[in-house]
């Protein structure tokens, strides 16, 4: 019910927003107020964008954070123990493609050497993929909502009305291109109004054509010879149809209203046949979406050409303006990209993937291409989750608390979380951070709303600033270049591809592709995926069955993907193909062997599917998302099979392995040793 | 084109009708129901429905179709229409469910309008009622324009479980449940089984004995002894009763224990405890002091379960009320409304339309499809626009006085949200008018068998109606067998239907010498309609035989033109290739080698109407 207190329920979201803005501007004099946050919707977007430009240009770094409508489109799409890096990328890609971003926090930070503090400008953008372009019909835009995520947003008082009613729309670069191309095509067609010759068959058409011909003739001669009354003639039959003399591009014109498109075609035909100097113009109105039709008088052939060109140019201008305004929130992304600022995020692979898919274009099919492409748009990205986990000193400062955004914030920046708590002496070594919203600067506030993207971005930036201070940055030195500072070199452009597995994706230019993938502890070719077995079977029973058939040490472990599927990790890869072969044999056998064979327990029901790891990748790459993995496998239609050439498969696999090992040997920085430690730890835990 | 114009006119009319000024006198107070007032409203609703003769419903979903060709159109048979509706019903969410029990006496319409906000809250953390749902951005935008309050819906919406989900949740909610009575003895036991059963039997025996002892000499033991005994025997309390928990590690063991426990069925009742992830975690045996105690215990358990179910069921209680009342349900859009209702509140949708009709009629035997009723009386009007539909009936003399009979609901004119769910009153009103006009007021409800041919009348089998090609009620539409349609794609982007027709006419192929028609289904794919049977086969054969092709048709094939018969389209729908472009879906279908095992192979009729061309304004 807190919600009611904050924003009394009113039907119009604009009212809500206004009241919230009052909030942020009310921080003027009072020392402890709610956290000042600039909420941005489409009504104040234009002005805010201009201010933001200046802030970003001056900024040392920009922190971002996103709120989405969901994370996983199916339970098994969550990050799992057995995910190879390429599968993990496919899962990230699926999430970014399916869910919508509803809030985008942008918070530029600038070191103010006069006050010896960072000045931050937290912005909270509500965005919504509204379709702004109407001259063409791109495929209906759809997004997925995960019910638990929506519930989560609701728990933190997310304002859905503000988002849907007033959210800022956007076009990705690709969408913009497509829109311009489509428009180009559309208007090149329209430009040359080529009336197809058709015969007037119906009596009504013939009569209508004759009537229009007379009427146009009358109008034309009145124009030329100065008739009695050239304005507003209502049509004879008293219907809604009307013609009115107006001026179109400084030429006398008839404004046609209330005609059906068929009648308009007949009029065009009449013009073409009988009137060389009257031109038919179909114009899209600038302000409204409705179009208008004119018959325009031209006094010469060249004038006619000019007129057509003018009309064409105008249409083009209108469309370009429309596309420009439809770009909407992407202007902010373009700004960050063109300024080449250091982007700071917390566990931000999903955020970056969302940014790419919403504002650049469709995500590339592989992680390698993604890495290569993201560099062009965001050359410097730093992830605070990497920082606090990989740097031993920072890791220690976290005092073993979790490295989630909010706990990292309270461990590293207690002075900012609750600035009203006074100034202990130990706070002296803390970085001071001020907030400025709408030109009002303040340094004291109550804790802000967590999971409000703008506040989360602010927290992320604070963690980064504090971490830099711990790393020994001297902010007062002129021109502290964060992006090129050697103290940050080990951390910059590295993201957790999967936090739970510790996979790190490296975006650095010098390391071309995914070579820096950490050597995985699983040999994926040893894995078999089984689904649609009898539901009551548990992992342990499945392991027993297989061990009965292949020997007690054949299976290393069995791991549930969800209720309907398991991964079976065999001792070696030969067992994988043996298992798949045996399964096939048993299925084709109707004899008693089938019933008494130990595997029959798994195959019971006759729908059990099994495949190797590559099939799992294939299933993950599908854009379909069924809730149960077994349904997914059936729908994607992976045929239970062994790979045609397992030899070839393994050799390429070992090739990559060698390469990976080589890189690990070569690199000997903190990260790798740290990771090696965790691998050992994890290995120990498993054993 | 004419139609397009008319539609635009109608929609502008609707826009003006939507203005509060013109419609002010027609605004009714609709009771808005959210989580907080659901319980009280439920009783009120029960009274309303009992005192009414009909129930009008109107659903507001988060989307209707993702791509142009996904919407039900003229070229669809009942089966493909159903598959399209099914696809939508499974993906989108119902945000608002407006209901209006009403009765009609002479010209007096008494309505009880309710508007329920729904949101699928995963209260049990089991991915139910739904793990996720799709939203069509444009739909949400238009809902926003109409002032829909998303915060109320998501914060305060009522959750629900379908009938099937409820029975599944019973086990997963963590509450102990009574096992189903054992029907057949399990498969022959192994040595291990015998040992296991023996061990458990002696454990239960000892425990039971101790229970019997303690109940016979209550109070004799001091606390220490009794607690020691409990510790040794592993005995616990279940409520006020003694119980023993036996952990199990497979369903097989559960079966064995339950079989063994029948020996003690007089005073021991087994309960199953589910583990959080899957399967049974433990069997609990509860000691009963007497036969009466046992009955009491079972009744308690049943009450507990009922209470839990009611909590979990949520809005479905309302659906169950309608279903059990057997009152005729009036809907504006039969297929989309009832596929949604079936998917959300009954269970997963069957794979074909017959299964759906059967399954639905067991829950809702009486359904009135308003659009069908409307078509019969006023064939040219567009039912999707209710105010326009109502005004189109003005030429009939059918006065209807509306009286809102919702009591106890505060009318606050300042609160705009009272206005949501107006549609459902208009549906009642429209139904009242139509039935007055039809004079079939005595028995306006159609039973479901009637509905089958009422709703899908136009799709009746071609064999019976081959001689009559033209439908009476619309001079522009013709009945044509689905086998006479050929899908054409891979065309140049600038091609229009008229151009394509011209090209085909010029192609000097025999099949195009006769009359035929061309329409675009979406941007990527057109359909060619032959009036003569057999022409489609000839055309398909010739295009697929590239060597013998001549002229521009050959050129087009070389440039990527592809063709397919209706069967491919049917298969695309059945296999669920819901791509954004129909062309892509058909390509995929042709690639997939899966043979069609479906019995839905017989040709069906569709109504071809020049009016039914795809209107891009509406997409």
TrEMBL record, chain A:
Cofactors, names only: a divalent metal cation
Pfam name, any one: CAF1
Membrane-spanning ranges: none
Signal peptide feature range: none
Keywords on record: Coiled coil
Compositionally skewed regions (Basic and acidic residues) per UniProt: 642-659
Coiled-coil boundaries: 297-324
Record flagged with keyword Transport: no
Gene Ontology MF terms in the entry: 3'-5'-RNA exonuclease activity; RNA binding
Region (Disordered): 638-659
Family, per entry: Belongs to the CAF1 family.
Name of the protein this chain belongs to: Poly(A)-specific ribonuclease PARN
Species of provenance: Raphanus sativus
Gene for this chain: LOC108805375
TrEMBL record, chain B:
Entry-linked Gene3D superfamilies: Ribonuclease H-like superfamily/Ribonuclease H (3.30.420.10)
Pfam families found in the cross-reference section: CAF1
Cofactor(s), names only, from the UniProt record: a divalent metal cation
InterPro entries named in the record: CAF1_poly(A)_ribonucleases (IPR051181), RNase_CAF1 (IPR006941), RNaseH-like_sf (IPR012337), RNaseH_sf (IPR036397)
A single GO molecular function term of this UniProt record: RNA binding
Family statement: Belongs to the CAF1 family.
Identification of the protein by name: Poly(A)-specific ribonuclease PARN-like
Organism whose genome encodes this protein: Raphanus sativus
